Amino acid sequence: MNRSSNSVLVIDGSRIFRNYLSTHLSALGFKVFVCQDLAETKQTLEVRTDFVFVVSCYHLLDAEDGEVIDLLLENNLKVVVLTAKFEQETRQEFLKKGVLDYILKDSLSSVQYVIPFAKRIKNNQFHHALVVDDSAMMRRTICQLLESQYIRTIQACNGEEALQQLTNNPHISLIISDNYMPEMTGLEMIREIRRHSIHDDISILGLSGSDDKTMTAQYLKAGANDFLHKPFNQEELFCRVNQLLNMQEATKELFKLANQDALTGLWNRRYLFDTIGKNVADRCIAMLDIDFFKKVNDNYGHDGGDAALTHISGMLKAFFGDQIVARFGGEEFCIHYRGEFEKFCKQLERMRRCIEADHVEHQGQVIKYTISIGATSMEGTLGEQIKVADMRLYKAKESGRNQLINS
Ligand SMILES: [Mg+2]
């Protein structure tokens, strides 16, 4: 298994299927390799085996009984099997062998299932799951299943330990938890997690082997997103997990759409005021804009103006990537900086000089521009600080532009 690879392998006797899958998988950003039979697959595997996953037909012209699947599994590859027949026995056999999933290949459209699956696998690489259960065997089983789909895992044997893990690992995006555990139950743990809004993004899947019919409701009321009865089969778990992660990603995407500037990808004014909150200690603010931006637009067209805006956004991300940078509208930007004012000003000055020395290439033309900056570290509300920074920005304009005013 190779997380850094971006390659997938498609094995199918039909050229139409191969082309169809290649086109769609390439569109997702995968580098697609194709083989039409077992012989070609053997050749390919001699050269490379670092595929994120393989989509392979069960029956090939030179291997009618699934020999290719065995070959792929021997090479420790993650395989999605395309099969023309669905039989309970075949299904069990596949899953027992360690196949990721199987798809009934009854028409071209049925293969459309592969695309969301591929998307899921690609995105899973960014997720970390915390698996909480007092049974070590159960933890191991769930972790193995999740890892087979590239989700990284962390374990905890009770609610208390899980809360500790959550503090230590802020990137956890999914929690799968049992209820009955010593020290702290799953329900108690979930209630504690949901008390803090910083954990709102985390999806929680409750598990329980209890016969208690009210368990589902108890979990959901405590703040879990979904619930699964033990024992469960692997497909059931994957369906739930996939659904939770899909939903989580869609919510994030919506948040971005509402709070980010479409052209530059920077935060917008709404985000700064609504999400960053009112009073933050040791906060510095800088307001800056492009000098004579109207001239850039007049001379190079709005495309040229957009190129300059994209360029300055790249600079802002490069110099202040660990801070909050927002496009306020037009050619005006705001940097919300946590730290020492002196350091902040030095960094602003470095960026100003860098922009002055740099240029933007746009449709064969060279665009050069400079920026003016006003900065403050005064105490006050965000609105008050922005007002002061804005006044200093105005002063910078008055004093000849292309400079930083910080007092
Ligand atoms: Mg238990």
TrEMBL record:
One of its GO terms (cellular component) is plasma membrane. It comes from Vibrio ziniensis. Residues 281-407 form the GGDEF domain. PANTHER family: DIGUANYLATE CYCLASE DGCM-RELATED, REGULATORY COMPONENTS OF SENSORY TRANSDUCTION SYSTEM. It holds the Pfam family Response_reg. The keyword Flavoprotein does not apply. This is diguanylate cyclase. Its EC number is 2.7.7.65. CDD domains: GGDEF.
